[in-house]
Design a protein that fits this description.
There is one protein chain. The chain is about 20% helix and about 30% strand. By secondary structure, it is an alpha/beta fold. It has a single domain, classed as Metallo-beta-lactamase, Chain A (4-Layer Sandwich), CATH 3.60.15. The longest helix is centred in the C-terminal third of the chain and has 13 residues. It comes from Halobellus clavatus.
């Protein structure tokens, strides 16, 4: 099983509900890079951290016209520029995210307290230079959706045995409690793995509370993944 990429004849759909859907372009990869399309309040489709896939545009068209492509992590360039160019829309970045625009071969638009007219608000999860990590999540309070690109995930290398949702291995010693505990979501979408579509709020609290306690199991799981 490759860490990233590999052979694929189509994406695996995840996280479908009435206002969005997710997909994993390479279902057999260990990283389980997940991408999402979210429907905004005015009907446009916002594509988050996309990894391109055959027939992806047909999936997006089910939800409407693409309004923009959004980068949630400074190192999640993935296929954002290609998807944005194909749909003739900008790549959206929060105003504070730096040293990313010059690496994108597509027009860039900055946003502040709201992502366009989508109803999604940015959540500054981390902005640090050591380790280099600029991450912005998205929350829609009325819809109950919280998207976290990297700090938490459901892919096996994030999770200790028995965890539904785990903190990124690098952040286990310093889990992002302040950034995320203020929310009580109905669903959590993540950048690695399928989302948590039920009992999301209690799962998130437990994940953050147990991040340090479960470090030995999580790191053991990660090592087993790397050696397999």
């Amino acid at each position: 099983m490759p860490m990233k990429g590999g052979e694929t004849d189509g994406y695996r759909e995840i996280d479908r509900w009435d206002r969005g859907v997710g997909w994993i372009a390479y279902p057999d990869e260990q990283m389980q890079r997940a991408s999402h399309a979210l429907v905004g309040d005015e009907g446009g489709v916002w594509v988050i951290d996309p990894v391109d896939a055959p027939d992806l545009d047909e999936l997006l068209a089910e939800f409407g016209d693409v309004a923009g492509v959004v980068l949630g992590l400074d190192r999640h360039k993935r296929d954002a520029a290609a998807v944005a160019t194909r749909h003739e829309v900008p790549v959206y970045l929060p105003r504070w995210m730096s040293d990313v625009e010059r690496e994108l071969d597509a027009p860039v638009e900055r946003y502040g307290s709201e992502l366009g007219d989508s109803g999604f608000e940015p959540v500054k999860i981390r902005d640090s230079s050591l380790p280099r990590w600029q991450e912005v999540g998205l929350v829609h309070r009325e819809d109950g959706t919280l998207l976290v690109p990297e700090a938490v995930g459901t892919a096996s290398f994030f999770c200790a045995p028995g965890e539904r949702l785990g903190v990124h291995p690098v952040l286990r010693p310093i889990p992002p409690r302040r950034a995320l505990t203020r929310y009580d979501p109905d669903r959590i979408l993540v950048g690695h793995g399928a989302g948590v579509m039920n009992d999301a709020a209690s799962t998130l609290r437990r994940t953050l509370d147990d991040a340090r306690t479960n470090m030995p199991g999580a790191y053991g799981q990660m090592i087993r993944e790397l050696l397999s």
